[in-house]
């Protein structure tokens, strides 16, 4: 039997990149997957098609998790369609870099609203439906360890996610709901291409510091998330797994 057979998972921000890789990996292990997107319906539909063509179950649901009503609507749609909820992957996130002289209130609020408030609101909505054995996996970043210049606000959002995850691991433990973090290093995605990281001096510098000598791929992160979602990780909660090729 597949590791996630009979389980239902919501993956936020799953229309591309790491989120899309996670959604496909969960489906390969038997989970029915809700592919969340905020703007790219075409991307989410493509992920759903890839899953269903391979014999899996998936639907696409629009929702901006930084808005409480939309976060609740996303979870309601998942439970309404599949009947229950077992796994929440808080993957939605945006990253922008700015030197301290260039940080603005708008920049701060944009990142914190999605990266931090979004995690809180999606989790709040999902926690009402998760039962014993439920798993919440929050996607953070290895940037909290490596302290990259110009990333003060982004790194701050991910540091907040780490702290929130530790608190929720203890808070939800009496209900036997696990909360863990995966902190990716540099991963080659549409986002890192768009941000100009791929092919840049920044990429070369990061790879030079990475013991395994390469950037990551979405599947490198998806495998770790699938493990944490499964009963193989039943004794793990409050953990932060840095999936970065060894960079610290």
Automatic annotation (TrEMBL):
Keyword Acyltransferase attached: no
Signal peptide start-end: none
Entry-linked InterPro entries: NAD(P)-bd_dom_sf (IPR036291), Sc_DH/Rdtase_CS (IPR020904), SDR_fam (IPR002347)
Natural source organism: Methylobacterium iners
The keyword Oxidoreductase belongs to this UniProt entry's keyword annotation: yes
Descriptive protein name: 3-oxoacyl-[acyl-carrier-protein] reductase FabG
Recorded superkingdom: Bacteria
Gene: fabG_6
Keywords assigned: Oxidoreductase
Gene3D superfamilies cross-referenced by the UniProt entry: NAD(P)-binding Rossmann-like Domain
NCBIfam families: PRK07231.1
Family of this protein: Belongs to the short-chain dehydrogenases/reductases (SDR) family.
């Amino acid at each position: 039997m597949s590791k996630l057979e009979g389980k239902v998972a919501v993956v936020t921000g799953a229309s591309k990149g790491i989120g899309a890789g996670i959604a496909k990996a969960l489906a390969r292990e038997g989970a029915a997957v809700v592919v969340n997107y905020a703007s790219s319906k075409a991307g989410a539909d493509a992920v759903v098609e890839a899953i269903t063509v391979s014999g899996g179950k998936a639907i696409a649901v629009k929702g901006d998790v930084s808005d409480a009503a939309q976060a609740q609507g996303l979870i309601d749609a998942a439970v309404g369609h599949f009947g229950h909820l077992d796994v929440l992957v808080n993957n939605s996130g945006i990253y922008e870099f700015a030197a301290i002289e260039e940080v603005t209130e708008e920049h701060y609020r944009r990142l914190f609203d999605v990266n931090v408030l979004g995690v809180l609101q999606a989790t709040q909505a999902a926690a009402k439906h998760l039962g014993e054995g439920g798993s919440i996996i929050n996607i953070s970043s290895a940037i909290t360890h490596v302290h990259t210049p110009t990333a003060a606000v982004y790194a701050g959002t991910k540091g907040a996610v780490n702290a929130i995850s530790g608190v929720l691991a203890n808070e939800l433990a009496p209900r036997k709901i696990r909360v863990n973090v995966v902190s990716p290093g540099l991963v080659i995605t549409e986002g890192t291409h768009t941000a100009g990281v791929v092919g840049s001096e920044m990429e070369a510098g990061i790879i030079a510091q990475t013991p395994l000598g390469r950037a990551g791929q979405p599947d490198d992160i998806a495998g770790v998330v699938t493990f944490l979602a499964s009963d193989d990780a039943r004794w793990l909660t409050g953990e932060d797994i840095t999936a970065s090729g060894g960079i610290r």
